[in-house]
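Holo prediction — S-adenosylmethionine.
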Amino acid sequence: MSVAATRQKQTAEWYEDYYTTKGDDRNDPLRNPGVLFQNLAFEKSIVEALRTIRLDKTWDILDVGCGAGFSMLRLLSYGLEPEHLYGIDIAQDRITRGRRRQPALNFTLGDATAMEYPSNRFDLAMESTMFVQITDETMAGGIAREMVRVVKPGGYIMLTDWRYSFGRPGYYALSPQRIASLFGVGTSTRVVCVRKGALLPPLGRALSRYLPTLYFPLCRVLPFLVGQVTVVLQKVSA
Ligand SMILES: C[S@@+](CC[C@H](N)C(=O)[O-])C[C@H]1O[C@@H](n2cnc3c(N)ncnc32)[C@H](O)[C@@H]1O
């Protein structure tokens, strides 16, 4: 089996295990009241980060590990046009679903460790909750290198991910140290901003379900309980 096929199979197995363990409604705000405030906090961190870098609606943007295009849909809702939005994912079923739902978006099926986009092509490359699920550091390093390569000098890399994983098998936190090592912070990139988002899942999901009015005050009072952050890096000019 080729490396790409092995990776495709491993990714499919990861998701099968995830939804078998957590339940089909794990991320469904209509069926699971634990989801809504986690999603709102997640989006808050992204909007604040995009405001910081003054996102221009004519930028070309690549979503790495785009799944069925959820993050690109969010950008569409902010007024970006589909011809500026590109997504790549290794999972055939997700890309098929994305293309069916949003035919105007530019979906590519492929392994992000070897992307076919030219160097310096995009103004912004982003990812959302992909790195936390990649425990193979060779693969993570390959994706990070590719994200830096395809972004223009002075362009941005936006990482929306979980900064703690507590040693759980199958997860590897995207901590500041891991970001620095994967993305060459200080040499190839520099940190532009860090914006806090969702609370650690057991707590955030419980508050969302039972005490939603306390959700954002708690984020402010106990910021170390925020597990998801959006970090923006800038590719330094050569
Ligand atoms: C948690 S999902 C996030 C999906 C999407 N970003 C979102 O927010 O809805 C992570 C995605 O990364 C993809 N992925 C994992 N390894 C990949 C690789 N090597 N190349 C491209 N996509 C990959 C998975 O197939 C999965 O769709």
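READOUT: Residues 7, 11, 65-67, 70-71, 88-91, 94, 111-113, 128-130, 133-134, 139, 143 surround S-adenosylmethionine (CB under 6 Å).
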